[in-house]
Amino acid sequence: MVCHLYSNFFITAYLLLLISLGYIVTDVYLPSLPALSSYFKASDNEIQTTLFSYLISFSLAPLIFGPLSDHIGRKKVLLWGVVIGTLATFGCLFAPNISWFIISRFIQGFGMGAVLIAARATASDLFTGKNLAKQMSRMTMLMPLILALAPSIGGLLQQNFQWRAVFIFLIGYMLFILILVILTPESVKHLSKAAAR
Length: 197
Known about the structure:
Elements: H1 2-27, H2 33-40, H3 44-72, H4 74-93, H5 98-126, H6 129-161, H7 164-183, H8 193-196
Helix pairs in contact: 1-5, 1-6, 1-7, 3-4, 3-5, 4-5, 4-7
């Protein structure tokens, strides 16, 4: 019984980290928007585009990666999503101008959208019926707590270390999640031999 609860705790925490990642990536950098505007000498419209470009790709990614995760497995999509997101975050960190930053944010949203859809599919693989409903209920209750922390963390980093520190934090956070994904087995029980390679 204790082992079962222990296992469920880590599954819940793992799924919560994955599902919340895409939202944290945006919420944590919101306090840095004025600093970004000043640094890049960008207009209000250009700064808003850094949000809009992310949301577009974040919304479109599931249309591609949802079916793909059914074919090649959740783990590969999660890995690709986190890697794309991490590389795009490096792009944000070293962006020489606002246009580069906007493009990096678009790519970042694409990766995070892949993570979101694969994580939700993973939950459906691991739980069914009432157990799935309970799991989703737990995550729904815990999600606001995690998301509430993101702007506070971003604000502290911005205040003490400036905006680049926010993206360094995100890179470290994504690398931590990448390690978790690597260590976690595939949740799809039956994959084609070609996809499993």
